[in-house]
UniProtKB/TrEMBL annotation, chain A:
Official protein name in the record: ABC transporter ATP-binding protein
Pfam families to which the protein is assigned, alphabetical: ABC_tran
Molecular function as annotated in GO: ATP binding; ATP hydrolysis activity; transmembrane transporter activity
Keyword Cell cycle applies: no
From TrEMBL, chain B:
The protein, known as: Permease
Chief location: membrane
Membrane topology type: Multi-pass membrane protein
Family, per entry: Belongs to the ABC-4 integral membrane protein family.
Presence of the UniProt keyword ATP-binding in the record: no
Protein species of origin: Actinophytocola xinjiangensis
Length: 223, 437
């Protein structure tokens, strides 16, 4: 079954003076295990598209089906549950909490009010996620002691710890050097081998080329 | 229920992590709140302790709350009837009142009229002697030759038919209280109050006890000292020991207010009816006063206004503490915008974010309350040790649990008030913050 199906999705931002259309009639489908790179210039609406897919925001028009269910106007409470159960997020800045260890940063996604796991189970699950990213040995380290690549891998582990069906990555290599960026993109792509769908927003054509499909966003229109 | 519990636990876990991550800030919040909570704890503790002390004094002077108090006549055989009515009952005690002079024979007491010994020497009050018809004359007009003043103390002599402490909790200062288990002694065993003890410390010649109308002057035996809350020298003695030396009518001297006080437990409702019936049968007036002691009510009105004034002041101090928490809370939320946006991104509902902030401020409030209560306990203990000798009500005083509860409530209320606005702000942080960063 198609995992995500966007049909004619539009989004307009209302500024002080005039409304500005960010997305205009976007159609996008995503199958399990598929990876899609979204390329586009700054301000083309890539992040807005990602925030609609990730239920951070709602479209003004069109339809959004998730696993065949219409979630175009899903209320925030349900959206929070869906974000927890279906999605994983990786951002350009890693957004790791400095006062927590790598393990605790991964565990935080398990302490979000959506179900309850005992402490030991949380630790085991978070440790497994870190080990999948081959950074289990960094579990006790706090973010300031980690390199940029290590921090981004901790962030990916956090995104994967609930075993999401869809991984959304918003320019995850933007703050990394080329080699580290390649490693991170490879780690992200590897998640699709386990059936996770990946949407990668990037400026880097080389990284985009590693995805199974590339979509270009120009002035709010996806091609 | 499990779902709710999970969210509650999540709030507490994340809240504790937040507190641990910002120890200095939490400490600053606590400092600003500490004085407010301590003020509430102190006012409540002070109020309860003052209430207890006041109640204890009232009970000492008037009787325990709920005690039935009857003022009975002593004339025309009423004393004998009263003593007979309460004999063998453990739910009532009769108290007769006469005047006695204890000391060297043939001397006038140093405190004529039974005034406190520190007021003696200002000249005796006119001594009145009344006959059965109520015609009174000054004693000096009767005596041809006034006796010389010497080593003798005049005091109120209270004859009791049972252990009166059941109704009036006299505080035993030394020795023992009147023993009712043994046979009555020919030498009346006296328990004197502190004023009498002071008098006998200065004039210690308890050679004989003169009671008006007694067949002879017995030699008393002082067995103990009590604090009875009274103002003048007083001695308590078994009524049956006095009856070895005087008639029942002599137990109550009409020249000194002479009636009989009868203290009874609230359940002794039959006693009033029995006495009225017997008085009526002996042509004794049956209109005597009966009241129920309501020390709590009397005391409540005295202390409540003061307590409300102080609580109002404490609430103001607490508000300043709340403003401190609010200030720190708003600053912290502003600093943690990305964290809260991220938490929303990973599926944390808005109200749980609010719960996290509230959990932090509530925990801060509780920690502060614990510190303030601890300080209150230590402070009270220190005050008790340092000032108990000057202020007896502080001796062995326990920290009142009501003050602890008030402190916890103050901490919780401050936590909620100080955390509410930051919590609402945290819940409103848009997730897109993490996208735009």
């Amino acid at each position: 079954m198609t995992l995500i199906q966007l049909t004619g999705v539009t989004k307009t931002l209302r500024g002080q003076d005039e409304a500005r259309t960010i997305l205009s009639g976007v159609d996008l489908t995503l199958e399990p295990g598929e990876s899609v790179a979204v390329l586009g210039r700054s301000g083309s609406g890539k992040s807005t598209l990602l925030s609609l897919i990730g239920l951070f925001d709602r479209p003004d028009g069109g339809q959004y089906l998730l696993g065949g269910k219409d979630i175009t106007r899903v209320p925030e409470r349900r959206a929070a549950a869906l974000r927890s159960a279906e999605f994983g997020f990786v951002f350009q800045r890693f957004f790791l909490l400095k006062h927590l260890t790598a393990l605790q940063n991964v565990s935080m996604a398990l302490v979000n009010g959506q179900g309850w796991l005992p402490r030991r189970k949380r630790r085991t699950t978070a440790m497994e996620a870190l080990e999948r990213l081959e950074i289990g040995h960094l579990a006790r380290h706090k973010p300031p002691r980690l390199s940029g690549g290590e921090q981004q891998r901790v962030a990916i582990a956090r995104a994967l710890v609930r075993r999401p069906k869809i991984l959304l990555a918003d320019e995850p290599t933007g703050a990394l050097d080329t080699d580290t960026g390649n490693l991170v993109v490879e780690a992200l792509r590897a998640t699709t081998d386990e059936g996770c769908a990946l949407v990668l927003v990037t400026h880097d054509r080389d990284h985009a080329a590693k995805m199974s499909r590339v979509a270009r966003l120009t002035d709010g229109v996806l091609a | 229920m499990i779902r709710l519990s999970g969210r509650l636990r999540s709030s507490l876990i994340i809240g504790l992590q937040g507190i641990r991550a910002r120890k200095l800030r939490t400490l600053l919040s606590m400092v600003s709140l500490f004085l407010g909570v301590l003020a509430v704890v102190t006012v409540q503790a002070g109020s309860v302790i003052a209430q207890r002390a006041l109640l204890a004094d009232l009970e000492l002077q008037r009787g325990k709350d709920g005690t039935l108090l009857m003022y009975l006549p002593s004339e025309q055989g009423a004393s004998a009837i009263t003593l007979d009515a309460v004999a063998g009952r453990d739910d009532a005690v009769a108290m007769t009142r006469a005047q006695a002079i204890i000391g060297e024979p043939g001397l006038r007491p140093v405190n004529e009229g039974g005034v406190p010994i520190d007021q003696a020497g200002y000249g005796p009050p006119p001594q009145m002697v009344c006959d059965d018809h109520g015609n009174c004359v000054e004693q000096s007009e009767q005596d041809d030759e006034p006796k010389p003043v010497g080593q003798a103390v005049e005091l109120s002599l209270i004859g009791i038919t049972g252990d009166v402490r059941e109704f009036r909790p006299f505080r035993l200062e030394s020795g023992e209280f009147v023993d009712f288990d043994s046979a009555p002694s020919l030498a009346p065993r006296l328990v004197i109050n502190k004023h009498a003890a002071e008098a006998f410390a200065a004039y210690s010649v308890p050679a004989e006890m003169r009671i008006t109308g007694a067949s002879a002057n017995p030699t008393p035996l002082i067995v103990g000292v009590v604090d009875d809350g009274g103002w003048g020298p007083t001695a308590y003695v078994r009524a049956d020991e006095l009856l070895n030396w005087t008639e029942p009518a002599g137990l109550s001297d009409p020249n000194y207010g002479g009636g009989i006080e009868l203290l009874a437990s609230p359940t002794a409702t039959d006693l009033e009816q029995i006495l009225r019936s017997r008085f009526a049968a002996n042509d004794i007036p049956t209109e005597f006063q009966v009241e129920t002691i309501d020390s709590l009510e009397q005391m409540g009105s005295q202390i409540s206004l003061m307590r409300w004034i102080f609580l109002g002041m404490a609430a103001l101090v607490l508000l300043i503490g709340v403003a401190g928490i609010l200030n720190v809370g708003l600053a912290t939320v502003g600093e943690r915008v990305e964290e809260f946006a991220l938490r929303r991104a990973v599926g944390t509902p808005r109200f749980l974010l609010a719960g996290i902030v509230l959990a932090e401020t509530l925990l801060t409030g509780l920690l502060t309350a614990a510190a303030a209560i601890g300080a209150g306990v230590v402070g009270l203990e220190a005050a008790s040790r340092l000032f108990a000798s000057r202020e007896p009500f502080l001796a062995n005083v326990a920290f009142p649990w009501e003050a602890g509860v008030a402190g916890v409530i103050a901490g919780l209320v401050a936590g909620i008030l100080g955390g509410l606005i930051p919590a609402i702000r945290a819940a409103r942080i848009p997730i897109a913050t993490v996208m735009r960063a």
